Amino acid sequence: MRTNRTPALAAVAALALTGLTACSTAKQATSDAAHAAAQAASALPADALAALGLANTHLQSQNSAKVTATIRMPGAATAETMKGAMAWDSGMRFTGDVTGAPGMAALSTDGSLPAVIVGGAIYMKVSNPTALAQTGGKSWMKLDFAEIAALSRNPQASSLGGGMDSALKQISPVQTVRALTGDKGVRSVGRETMDGQATTHYSGHLTLDQMLAAIPGLTGAQRQTLGKADTSIGLTGEDVDIWLNERALPVRVQEHTVTQKGDLDIDRHFADYGVPVSVTLPNSADTFDLAAALKAAAGGVGGHGPAPVRATPGQGAGRQPSGGSSVAAAPASGSASRARSRAVIGRSPPCSRRSESALP
To answer: Which residues form the signal peptide (predicted)?
Structure first.
């Protein structure tokens, strides 16, 4: 591949991932079928914090699920939709598809972007002929966030890159539930039927500190970087709504965050906890490694090298699991909430929004 095309391709990839790391969601009205959900309460503690604590315990053993997510970034005309299967037991694994992401047309011919997330790297299936010409005909593009961040001369970007695996884990319901267990103001809204299940609806508010504290695996420097990035865009916290079923497992999670650029909303629906998630990495011979190409293109991102890569971690999307059940797709977004930096697929507690502001 000709190196002078690398910056342009990197920009396209960044656009396609911009919302994949987002992390909040809008609130929803209560269900009209509350009477059908009456049975949910019998299995959940009456106290909201106790119920969320039980959910936190159950999620330690239920470490995979199918997910359908909708992300609306600040100022975006349309929302991104992600559907797939994910596992969070040992590092982040996701496989599915994403539609509606900015810049996706430059990579995809049919409006859908198959993607696979493993650890801190996302693999995206390229189908647009122009993009394929830039990848030398290779049909998969790999973005390793830590490697790309390491190429940057911006210390904030370098710090964020190393925490991307933790950020991507925030696509799962685990981090949100963990954070809510520290919200003494969380309350029960009532019993509702959600996605055909009897559930209890809870509502709470997380401060930026609570969001950051719930992200595992980050160093003190990474937490500080994410916090500064979030604060710089006016992010101070997020409103969270969560629906728990009789097994104290999240059926739906909504997060709504206000920033200086507008509202960030993320709505995630979970089903089939414990579903097998088999992720097969693309053949290396058919994979274009963006970080390696940037290194070869001229001394790294930023400074005197190629145009800066403002790749916001995405809620990556992916393909249908090769061995598990059939699914569709999802990526990541933001900084603190989903280190989100918080998505998919997903910076997310705050996710991609933050990391984006910290990049060069």
So the answer is: 1-26
